[in-house]
Amino acid sequence: MHVETLAWVGGRPGFVRLIEQTLLPREEREVEIRTVDEMVDAIYRLAVRGAPAIGVAAAYGLLLGLQDQEFEDGADFLGRARESAARLGSARPTAVNLFWALDRMVARAERDQAAGKTSDELLAGLFEEAKNIHSEDAHQCRRMGEVGADLLRDGMSLLTHCNAGALATGGMGTALAPMYVAHERGLSLKVFADETRPLLQGARLTTWELQRAGIDVTLICDNAAATAMQQGKIDAVFVGSDRIARNGDVCNKIGTYGVAVLARQHGIPFYVVAPLSTFDPDIRSGKDIPIEERSPEEVTLGFGTRTAPEGVSVWNPAFDVTPADMVAGIVTEVGLIERPNLARVEEALRKGGRLPEAPTGT
Ligand code: MRU
Question: Has residue 51 got a pLDDT over 90?
């Protein structure tokens, strides 16, 4: 059932085929991306979106910039790889998977160049690395699905915000993965999807995905979430993340923090589902996460209809930060981080090889 959000097509040279998400649900169309600039544009426009999917797209994007070129030597190759990585990294600032994937690609090229490989071998190495980033992401989604599904019981009713499903990853999703796995296990779930203003990822994408999977989904306006909780309609909240600070603060789509505040008020557990590639060990707390601000037109002229007077001031942050102490748990591919804090996040990062092992006591 799962959707193939993006794929590398052909060998070397090849191109990226991705679902044009700006058109969903009214049109299911795929587009071909053949240059770095086209990939930067696709990421900025949200044709491809969601933190893990952006990481995979950027890794493939780097190949697009290198595959047809002639290089003087390995140093020349490396210089141009770094240049393409910088361009791709400028597409969006918040989802750390973008930078994580680009850093991993450039580090691979640096290692191979230091080992004296030819330009052709450097390119072959990057192909392998990009494919690995993609397939590891799919595998991690499945693992998070299994870990998260253990938190679910038959008949539960869940709330999700934005889209953290297959369309946001190279696999079955993050926040939606536990729902898919629970569905496979025969559990019956009810999912409420927040519409997610202003770009309606919940209305356009999450409902589309869950409907296709045969999962009972009900769309609500963002401002109906409080009432849904007050009326006892929600047993747990599951959301994805774009960047998680070392102390467990969670950055996700604007409106997520509001949902967390509501969940706390109503005693409802608030879970985050994210791979370790979404953690940023260099950022100690959520206040240091760069928050993307997008164009006013997304708010006043969304989808071509003017809904506010011309010239009105608009503030349009795309993400917000939920403090760690409001999070019941973060589901990762290495297990559940219960009530996340600095020590527990560091322990998970060590387990997943994203931090070196702590020195043992004397
Ligand atoms: O602006 P978007 O649509 O890229 O925002 C996406 C989200 O906020 C998702 O919840 C997040 O990336 C996690 S996706 C697995």
Answer: yes
